[in-house]
Design brief:
The protein has two domains: 120 residues, NAD(P)-binding Rossmann-like Domain (Rossmann fold), CATH 3.40.50; 175 residues, Dihydrodipicolinate Reductase, domain 2. The strands form two sheets. It has an eight-stranded mixed beta sheet, covered by helices on one side. The protein has a six-stranded parallel beta sheet with strand order 3-2-1-4-5-6, with helices on both faces. The protein is an alpha/beta fold. α1 crosses α8. It is globular, with a radius of gyration of 20 Å. Helices cover 34% and strands 27% of the residues. The longest helix has 20 residues.
Length: 337
């Protein structure tokens, strides 16, 4: 294998064209070598615009290219399992947008494929490798706010376009799959544990059927986490972590800016009005660049990747339990491997 991982892109999704590909091209270990689209003109245009040397009119042609080491899969949610599996079966490592599947059993199938084919498959929760979140986890471990007891999250945007894939339940749309998954993932990441049970309320859109607002409580062995994720409310996002001796606030926790510094705030609780809140600044970085380089490094060195498939299974199992709870009205226990 070369000194860089040669990446192929499945499809010309907006997130790939506008965010992930340019970011990975700025990385030290990523080479974007090819892109495929079922629309030949679209593939050619994307390749020309982004200076990608090869382009294909089918996903199959890309997977058959022996010069491609790894695949980035930004296809719609309902296609993640199929094409990640096909890429792995073709001997390619895979970075796949979240969620990896539509249910935990689908992720279990990917684990089986990974083990059989000996490739790396990672879910693209880019926030997990951002320096800001790495530092929050360190502060919690150092007990900077005492014992962590509670996590709260809010993540919202407004999108009522019925033609948008995020508003199509059959394509894995809805608030929980699109943005609530981040609140679950970060809660698990910071607690460093799995929820024992979850309870939820879901409000569905009368026309599309997607969950347009989901709220949940997750009971962890070492505390509780709550979140609300609407897709037809004012855009906003924040997470807070409450301990026995302080609080950490993370503004803009997920769509972290790439062109300006970002911050976290530490409050020791000594002043209700926040006069003694400490502000920690982090230089601007592109979390998609960091994500791509770290996975490429793991591929080149055959070392441990940042987010395991087992971790992704646990996240999907929590999502499944949130959906079940909204139907049964009961506390539900996430599936375990």
């Amino acid at each position: 294998m070369s000194k860089k991982v040669r990446w192929g892109i499945l499809g010309a999704a907006n997130i790939a064209i506008k965010k992930v590909i340019p970011a990975m091209q700025n990385g030290e270990l990523c080479e974007i070598a090819a892109i495929a689209s079922r629309d030949f003109d679209k593939a050619k245009r994307a390749a020309n615009d982004l200076s990608i040397p090869k382009f294909y009119a089918s996903y199959e042609e890309l997977l058959a290219d022996s010069e491609i080491d790894a695949i980035y899969n930004p296809l719609p949610n309902h296609l993640h399992l199929e094409w990640t599996t096909k890429a792995a079966e073709a001997g390619k490592h895979v970075l796949c947008e979240k969620p990896l599947g539509l249910t935990a059993p689908q992720v279990r199938k990917l684990i089986e494929t990974r083990d059989r084919r000996g490739v790396k498959i990672q879910e693209a929760f880019m926030v997990r490798t951002h320096p800001k979140w790495q530092r929050v986890r360190e502060l919690i471990r150092e007990k900077r706010i005492g014992d962590l007891c509670a996590v709260t999250g809010f993540f919202s945007y407004f999108n009522d376009d019925k033609s948008n894939i995020r508003n199509k339940p059959e394509m894995g749309g809805g608030a929980l799959m699109d943005i609530g998954c981040y609140c679950i993932n970060i809660s698990r990441f910071i607690f460093e544990n799995e929820p024992r049970k979850v309870s939820s309320l879901i409000e569905k859109d009368a026309e599309t059927g997607i969950d347009k607002m989901t709220s949940a409580i997750m009971d962890f062995p070492n505390g509780q986490a709550t979140f609300t994720c609407p897709t037809q409310l004012v855009p906003s996002q924040k997470m807070q972590f409450f301990g026995s001796e302080g609080r950490i606030e993370v503004p803009i926790p997920f769509n972290i800016p790439t062109d300006s510094p970002t911050y976290i705030f530490i409050d020791d609780g000594s002043d209700l009005y926040g006069k003694k809140i400490e502000k920690i600044e982090f230089p601007a970085v592109n979390q998609y660049t960091v994500q791509g380089d770290l996975l490429s490094k793991a591929i080149l060195e055959n070392s441990e990747q940042a987010i395991s498939l087992e971790d992704s299974f646990a996240n999907m199992a929590a999502i499944d339990a949130v959906f079940r709870s909204s139907e049964t009205g009961n506390w539900e226990t996430p599936e375990r491997l």
